[in-house]
Specification:
The chain is α+β, with helices and mostly antiparallel strands. The chain has helices spanning 2-31, 253-309, 338-344; strands spanning 39-53, 58-73, 82-93, 98-109, 115-116, 122-123, 126-127, 146-150, 155-167, 170-190, 200-215, 222-234, 240-251. α1 (2-31) packs antiparallel against α2. The radius of gyration is 43 Å and the shape is elongated.
């Protein structure tokens, strides 16, 4: 019985040890993914910005801006391999006047966070194929250069690892990317706005940005984002004439705390699957194997002793055989015995 129990324990323990090895290698990659039901709102602010009032076609300086970015997962179009995000960004001033409004729909690999061509992706309602990283970094972010997509320029740029820092109680990797001035559109404006004598002229709308991202490496969550954005109207000679927007936008303190919590939660789940569960399974499995081996060995040692007890060589009680005749009852004799009686006969 003990040998059977021991063998069962060895089998169960071995199974748990295999599970300990398989969990971080097979189970964790299958479960640690970008969620399909992503839902978040980040807020960035800028002080003393300059914007163009399109109503009066004049610059406004000293403006405080607030940018709200909402990310919502399209669960219906997502699957085991991809997630689909619908994103909206609205920038307003202190008077709640809308400065810019943009929308984005992108599909991304749930493990690498790289954009994938799928699911009617678009920018501002127009079909467009994204590339590189969008809105998040991969699990296990490395100290290297990644391609990160810029929605305004509509292309990916190198986001270079710069340094490792502490932010909101987390160790984060700092990445920087630079968008050199690029023409993003052309609009018709009054000629005098650009110093021209013509009534209406075509003005190139140019965009430049320096984006800095602080990323928690285990989860890939962007804890803090910052942009130094400049959009201008240029004349025919390529000179900047009017600022459409000139602002330094950065995540608010509350948004940084919110993102840090999201990173900690994700990191805790990753640690559970890659470290805690494997260690518990491994230790429990090893303990069961050792106990099982002990029971099997002990049972093996006891078998020879039991066999000895069952052999004919064991001690037996010395009882008379049923076949042996009963001993004859002895007749009473004088105290002197038989020889003494014989000597008294005449």
């Amino acid at each position: 019985m003990r040998s059977t129990s021991g063998a069962i324990l060895v089998g169960v323990g071995t199974f748990l040890i295999v599970g300990a090895v398989a969990t971080p290698l097979v189970v964790a990659p299958a479960l640690v993914k970008v969620p399909l039901d992503q839902s978040s709102v980040t807020v960035s602010t800028a002080q003393n910005a300059t914007v163009l009032d399109f109503g009066t076609l004049s610059e406004r300086s000293g403006v405080n801006l607030t940018a709200h970015r909402a990310v919502r997962g399209d669960v219906k179009d997502g699957n085991a391999d991809r997630a689909v995000f619908n994103v909206g960004v609205r920038v307003i001033d202190d008077a709640d006047k809308e400065i810019t409004l943009s929308t984005d729909r992108v599909a991304l690999d749930r493990r690498t966070a790289m954009a994938v061509a799928c699911c009617a992706e678009d920018i501002n309602g127009a079909p467009f194929k994204h590339e590189g990283l969008t809105y998040t970094f991969p699990f296990g972010t490395e100290k290297k250069t990644y391609q990160y997509f810029d929605n305004t320029a509509r292309k990916a740029y190198p986001a270079k690892y710069v340094s490792t820092e502490k932010l909101q109680g987390l160790t984060v990797y700092k990445f920087e990317m630079t968008v050199e001035p690029i023409q993003i559109s052309e609009i018709k404006v009054p000629g005098n706005l650009l110093g021209s004598t013509e009534q209406v002229v075509n003005a190139g709308r140019y965009y430049a940005n320096t984006r800095t991202l602080w990323v928690e490496p285990d989860s890939g969550v962007i804890v803090k984002g910052q942009e130094k954005q400049l959009q201008t109207l240029r004349d025919g000679t390529g000179a900047d004439k009017i600022k459409i927007i000139d602002a330094d936008l950065a995540f608010t303190e509350d948004t940084q705390k919110q993102q840090a919590k999201a990173a900690k939660d994700a990191r805790g789940q990753i640690n559970l699957l890659t470290t805690v569960v494997p260690v518990i399974l491994g230790l429990l499995g090893l303990a069961l194997v050792l106990i099982g081996v002990y029971l099997v060995v002990r049972a093996g040692r006891r078998r020879p002793e039991a066999a000895l007890v069952e052999t004919d060589d064991r001690p037996t009680t010395d009882l008379p055989s049923q076949r042996s005749p009963e001993p004859a009852a002895e007749s009473p004799e004088p105290a002197g015995g038989r020889h003494a009686a014989e000597r008294t006969e005449p």
